[in-house]
Every structure is written in C-alpha cells, then in structure tokens.
C-alpha cells in the first residue's frame, strides 16, 4: 500500500500565491513519483484547477473557510485538520505555525506531523497586535506538539533553538534555472530595475516606491506584486504607474514564464524582504541570474553570500545601491549572473529540497526510508 501524506496550510494545489504554494507545486508531484498518495488541502478561490501544468495524480481537497485576512488561515486550517483527522493519512505536512492550534487534533487521531514553521510571523509589520499574538501562541503550540520541525534557514533554526529549545531539519526553498525566455521584450534587456514582492511593509515596498521616482529618472522601473486585498500600497503603485511613463506596475503575475523572464532580463532586482528565512522569491531570482540588491538582513546574507549588494530600507540607500549595480559594465554583470546561478544550483536545487522532505516524511511516518538523491548527512539538525 502506498504511504499517504496530507499537506495542510497552503492555499492549495496548484496555487501561485506565495512561497508555500511554490513549494507544494514542486513537492506534491515529486512525492507522487516517489510512491506517495498525496492530498493537498486548499481553497477553491485560490487554486488554478485548469492549470495545464497541474499533475492530476495529486488529490486536491477543498474545505470551507472564511476569506477574510484576519481569520482565513485559522478557519481553513481548522477545516483541513478536521478532515485529515478523519481520513487518517500516514503523516501530515503542516505549513505555517498558525496551524499549531490544530496539532493536538491531528495527534489525537494518531497522525504524526512535520511542521514547516516559516519565518518569524509575529514580527511582521502587516499584522496587528491580535494577529501577532495568534502567531506567537501558534509557535508555542507548534514547539510543544509538532513531532518534527522544518526550518528554511540556519538563522531560523538558531532562533527556534534559542527561544523554544527545539532542534529540527533545515530544508530551504529551491529555484529553477531556465533557458533564456523572451517575454520581457517590452522593456530594454538588462536595462530596467525590477521589484517582485507581496505588498506588505516588511518587504520594503513603501521605501522602494518612494525611491522609484528617482530611479525612474534614469532607468525603467518594473513593479510586480500586490497586497491581494487592495489598499494604500496598491493605490500608490497604480498612481505612480499612471503618472510616470518610466514606472510600470504589472500587479500579480501567475505566469511563471513571464515572471522568470523579467528576472532573467533585469538589470538589477531589488529584494526588500526583511522577516523570514530563505525567501523563495530570492532563491528563484538567484537561479535565474538576476543581479540583486537586497535589504540587509541575516537571512538575505545567508542566501546571497558575497554575491549581493545590501541596502538599508530607506530611499537614499536603495537609490545608491541600485545605481551602483546598474552602472557596472554589462560584461562584469554577466560574470555575477553566472556566479548567482552556480550558487543556486549548488545550494538550492529543487531536487535536493524535495528529497529532503521525502526522507523526513518517511522518518516521521515510520515508513522505510528509500534511497534519495541527497545524502542523509546533508540534512542538518
């Protein structure tokens, strides 16, 4: 009989909302190929059922919830955990500590859990006090009831070891190298500045938008992303795009070819994420060779090493750092692009990421471990 896994805590399969959804699009088919029966819980409003890249072998389970920013994660997490506790898979992969509230339910049903804790959610500026407390308590419950924990960066692992005394396995996100794509032809190749981010304050979006007008005086600025709920930052990006011919707001892009081509052809990519571990957006940009200016955090330095330029979250630092990269001769930028691709290939390949998850799920579920592409000694604890 096939081993079975339920994946809980994302918006479903296939979905293109964020890093968790990207990981599931890679991991779910990989697990099916490895002999698993895979069920991914999600929301009908967030999946692309007619996606031509959808693997029909992955079981998409839709449950009910409330589509409000303040309670959507908890409501869908509860109904997914409730349904899984009745179906009784061999193991559950839980994404996000907000679902720590439901680990006891799964434990009572005899379902072992592997929990990807994500970043330090309770420090994100987008959440109010009540939401931050929800995440903080969810982390405490995850530390108490989660059977196996996954950290996506060494810095996150150290934080959890320090605050909760819990060790775990470090498994980062992955990225794909791609052949040269030509979907960004409306912008000058290697001649524009790119931002790709969800519109929340901790991604330095307000600071970048402030800097964009000064940057646009010299180079085109391309902005990809939105809040998903509308609001001030969306309105500001729309206004800049409408009133400045050199600023282009494209909103959210779910077409990977188009998004990846924008990274491939960018003169510089600005990565302003400040809270979290290994950010999947940064890893994918690196795999596509995008010269990067990143907000100066321990997480971004862990991913980029000495291949990034690091900036403070203020207009002056952002403008100066981006101008510095854009002024590098193209031949020198090409060397950096290849070094970035090599680093991503060596440290953040999806094959090794998925094999690490597959091995850990087998260990958690008491299922015999098969040979996988990544040696066991490379799994950090």
Biggest sheet, in brief?
7 strands, parallel
Using only C-alpha atoms, the radius of gyration works out to 20 Å
Q: Roughly what fraction of the amino acids lie in strands?
A: 5-15%
Low-confidence stretches: 372-381
Number of strands: 13
Could you give the topology of this structure?
Blueprint: E1 4-8, H1 19-33, E2 37-42, E3 59-62, H2 72-87, E4 91-95, H3 103-108, E5 113-116, H4 129-145, E6 148-151, H5 154-164, E7 169-170, E8 193-196, H6 205-216, E9 221-224, H7 232-243, E10 247-251, H8 256-265, E11 268-271, H9 280-287, E12 292-295, H10 298-304, E13 309-311, H11 315-326, H12 330-347, H13 350-365
Parallel strand pairs: 1-2, 1-4, 2-3, 4-5, 5-6, 6-7, 8-9, 8-11, 9-10, 11-12, 12-13
């Amino acid at each position: 009989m096939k081993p079975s896994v339920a994946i809980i805590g994302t918006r479903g399969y296939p979905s293109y909302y964020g890093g968790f959804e990207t990981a599931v699009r890679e991991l779910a088919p990989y697990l099916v190929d490895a002999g698993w029966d895979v069920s991914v819980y999600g929301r009908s409003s967030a999946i692309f059922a007619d996606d031509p890249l959808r693997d029909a072998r992955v079981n998409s389970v839709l449950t009910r919830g409330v589509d409000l920013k303040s309670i959507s994660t908890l409501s869908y997490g509860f109904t997914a955990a409730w349904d899984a506790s009745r179906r009784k898979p061999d193991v559950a992969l839980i994404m996000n500590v907000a679902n720590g509230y439901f680990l006891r339910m799964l434990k009572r049903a005899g379902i072992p859990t592997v929990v990807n804790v994500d970043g330090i959610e309770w420090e994100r500026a987008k959440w109010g006090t009540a939401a931050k407390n929800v995440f903080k308590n969810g982390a405490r419950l995850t530390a108490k009831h989660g059977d196996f924990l996954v950290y996506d960066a060494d810095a996150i692992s150290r934080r959890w070891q320090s605050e909760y005394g819990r060790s775990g396995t470090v498994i980062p996100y992955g990225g794909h190298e791609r052949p040269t794509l030509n979907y960004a032809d409306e912008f000058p190749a290697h001649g524009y500045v790119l931002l790709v981010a969800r519109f929340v304050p901790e991604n330095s979006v307000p600071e970048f938008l402030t800097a964009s007008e000064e940057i646009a005086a010299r180079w085109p600025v391309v902005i990809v992303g939105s809040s998903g709920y509308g609001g001030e930052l969306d309105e500001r990006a729309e206004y800049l795009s409408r009133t400045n011919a050199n600023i282009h707001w494209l909103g959210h892009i779910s077409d990977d070819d188009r998004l990846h081509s924008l990274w491939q052809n960018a003169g510089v990519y600005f990565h302003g994420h400040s809270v979290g571990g290994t950010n999947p957006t940064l890893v994918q940009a690196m795999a596509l060779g995008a010269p990067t200016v990143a907000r100066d955090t321990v997480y971004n330095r862990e991913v980029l090493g000495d291949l990034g330029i690091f900036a403070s979250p203020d207009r002056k630092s952002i403008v100066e750092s981006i101008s510095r990269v854009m002024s590098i001769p193209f031949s020198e930028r090409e060397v950096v692009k290849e070094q970035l691709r090599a680093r991503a290939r060596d440290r953040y390949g999806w094959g090794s990421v998925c094999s690490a998850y597959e091995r850990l799920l087998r260990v958690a579920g008491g299922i015999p471990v098969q040979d996988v592409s990544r040696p066991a000694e490379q799994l950090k604890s």
